[in-house]
């Protein structure tokens, strides 16, 4: 991993998201999968949106507006504000939010949540928001450590009779051979390190390093020399390390404040990434309290002042923001103004709506005006048939589905009648049907059959109430 050139001695300032960090909070990544074709906003150097770029089709106004916001964030002029994306369902609000986070850097922490997540029976509403904000602030820790690094050439546990119990044998030590370009070395390591080796699934041919002081073992990747054995693998190959096996190495660890809070609340968990924060480890804590957060902040600030760590604010994305209530909104205002706030992106598909938690305050998007005043609002537009077709084709490519003649036109037409999301959702069931029929690609018949088996929203509602009846809150 390369070190960045940004000075790291400054105090934690919000929105200094210039260097791309990497986040370790991947637990929520599944919600991003439908947007895997989105690589960024696809803007030119002048900030203009090409009609089809970086996986984004059309939506040029919104993309250009988001480009300006990215510039504001990068020049640290966005503190205390939020970006609000409004538009009909399926018009790419979530996709835009993700693109903004990509533009800020490949691995800027991105913490998506849905407004309704705050209604948990166990945790305070505001606590859920506070946690999301902490998960969106990255910390890049640089340390120079004494390590043994190299390609594993030998991995032999040595067993001996256990002198304490009469039963069987235990591992007394493990012999690990490490090779670099310059030489090889054989290490005799403690059995606890052997457990770590098993946990990291390290085998001969992997490049690893062992920290001399703590004995923490880290797998860097598979050695280049083994790269040709398989064609398709989700493996990262790394070159044989240069220099001696025993050396000083700059290690970079990326964590979020949320990770640190959680690790310190659960003393046993996640100890490998937290080695640097070991001073905070105290036993007996079970939940993340404000006091704990303040302690973590203090330690983090210390590290930042020493130039050991660098704060990297990421992005909190709150979808369906009209689901928040007045309590959450006031708390959000306060969070926005805190000195270490990440970038906040909100999205909603509601027009005028009642602010939750109030009896009669109707406000645009169900958001109180004092928060609205802090927002830059960007609207997403609907799509035409051609644009829907292009997005469907992108998704089909990503999902590895082949489309027969005429299929794309047919799905795009369905999308124009229903919605973009409906068109995209047709792909999966249609591919199952084509598989059942023994075809290798989706044909027009499969789409026809999908439409027979399943209803779209309009035909479905029409089935029950021919008048259409109540307007279920649609505002656009
Ligand atoms: N302009 C676009 N280019 C490429 N893909 C798009 C575009 N707009 C939307 N998509 C894709 O269409 C799907 C639906 O869009 P998305 O989920 O972003 O809509 P949304 O506005 O967040 O809807 P909702 O209000 O229901 O949350 C996603 O898979 C998204 O990646
Ligand atoms: Mg969405």
From TrEMBL:
Record's keyword terms, sorted: Activator, ATP-binding, Chromatin regulator, DNA damage, DNA repair, Helicase, Hydrolase, Nucleotide-binding, Nucleus, Transcription, Transcription regulation
Listed GO CC annotations: nucleus
Region called Disordered, residue ranges: 1-31
Gene3D superfamilies in the record: 1.10.8.60, P-loop containing nucleotide triphosphate hydrolases, RuvB-like helicase, domain II
Entry EC number(s): 3.6.4.12
Catalytic reaction annotation: ATP + H2O = ADP + phosphate + H(+)
Comp. bias regions, Low complexity: 1-12
InterPro entries registered for this protein in UniProt: AAA+_ATPase, P-loop_NTPase, RuvB-like, RuvB-like_C, RuvBL1/2_DNA/RNA_bd_dom, TIP49_P-loop
Domain AAA+ ATPase: 79-369
Subcellular locations according to the entry: Nucleus
Family: Belongs to the RuvB family.
Function: DNA helicase which participates in several chromatin remodeling complexes, including the SWR1 and the INO80 complexes. The SWR1 complex mediates the ATP-dependent exchange of histone H2A for the H2A variant HZT1 leading to transcriptional regulation of selected genes by chromatin remodeling. The INO80 complex remodels chromatin by shifting nucleosomes and is involved in DNA repair. Also involved in pre-rRNA processing.
Designated name of the protein: RuvB-like helicase
Species in which this protein is naturally found: Hydnomerulius pinastri MD-312
């Amino acid at each position: 991993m390369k070190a960045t050139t940004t000075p790291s001695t400054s105090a934690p300032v919000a929105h200094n998201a210039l260097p791309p960090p990497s986040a370790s909070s991947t637990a929520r990544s599944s919600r991003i999968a439908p947007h895997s074709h989105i690589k960024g906003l696809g803007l030119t150097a002048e900030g203009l949106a090409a009609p089809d770029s970086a996986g984004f089709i059309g939506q040029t106004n919104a993309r250009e507006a988001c480009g300006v916001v990215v510039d504001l964030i990068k020049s640290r002029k966005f503190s205390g504000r939020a970006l609000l994306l409004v538009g009909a369902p399926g018009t790419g609000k979530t996709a835009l939010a993700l693109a903004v986070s990509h533009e800020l850097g490949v691995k800027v922490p991105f913490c998506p949540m849905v407004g309704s997540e705050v209604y948990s029976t166990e945790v305070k509403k505001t606590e859920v928001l506070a946690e999301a904000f902490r998960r969106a602030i990255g910390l890049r820790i640089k340390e120079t450590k004494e390590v043994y690094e190299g390609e594993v050439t030998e991995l032999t546990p040595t067993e001996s009779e256990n002198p304490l119990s009469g039963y069987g044998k235990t591992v007394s030590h493990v012999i690990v051979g490490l090779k670099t370009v310059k030489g090889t070395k054989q290490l005799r390591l403690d059995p606890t390190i052997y457990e770590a080796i098993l946990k990291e699934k390290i085998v001969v041919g992997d490049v690893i390093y062992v920290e001399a002081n703590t004995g923490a073992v880290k797998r860097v990747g598979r050695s280049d020399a083994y790269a040709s054995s398989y064609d398709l693998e989700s493996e990262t190959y790394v070159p044989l390390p240069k220099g001696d096996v025993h050396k000083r190495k700059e290690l970079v660890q990326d964590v979020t404040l949320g990770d640190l809070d959680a690790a310190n609340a659960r003393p046993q968990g996640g100890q490998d990434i937290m080695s640097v924060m070991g001073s905070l480890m105290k036993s007996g804590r079970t939940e993340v309290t404000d006091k704990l957060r303040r302690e973590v902040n203090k330690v983090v600030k210390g590290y930042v002042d020493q130039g050991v760590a660098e704060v990297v604010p990421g992005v909190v994305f709150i979808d369906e923001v009209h689901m928040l209530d007045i309590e959450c909104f006031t708390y959000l205002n306060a969070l926005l103004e805190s000195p270490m706030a990440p970038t906040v992106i909100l999205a909603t598909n509601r027009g005028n709506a009642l602010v939750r938690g109030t009896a009669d305050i109707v406000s645009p998007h169900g958001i109180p005006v004092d928060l609205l005043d802090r927002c830059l609002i960007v609207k997403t537009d609907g799509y035409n048939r051609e644009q829907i077709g292009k997005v469907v084709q992108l998704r089909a490519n990503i999902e590895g589905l082949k489309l027969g003649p005429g299929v794309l036109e047919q799905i795009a037409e369905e999308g124009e009648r229903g919605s973009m999301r409906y068109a995209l959702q047709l792909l999966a069931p249609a591919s199952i049907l084509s598989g059942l029929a023994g075809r290798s690609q989706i044909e027009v018949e499969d789409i026809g059959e999908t439409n027979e088996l399943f209803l779209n929203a309009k035909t479905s509602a029409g089935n029950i109430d021919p008048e259409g009846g109540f307007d279920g809150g649609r505002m656009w």
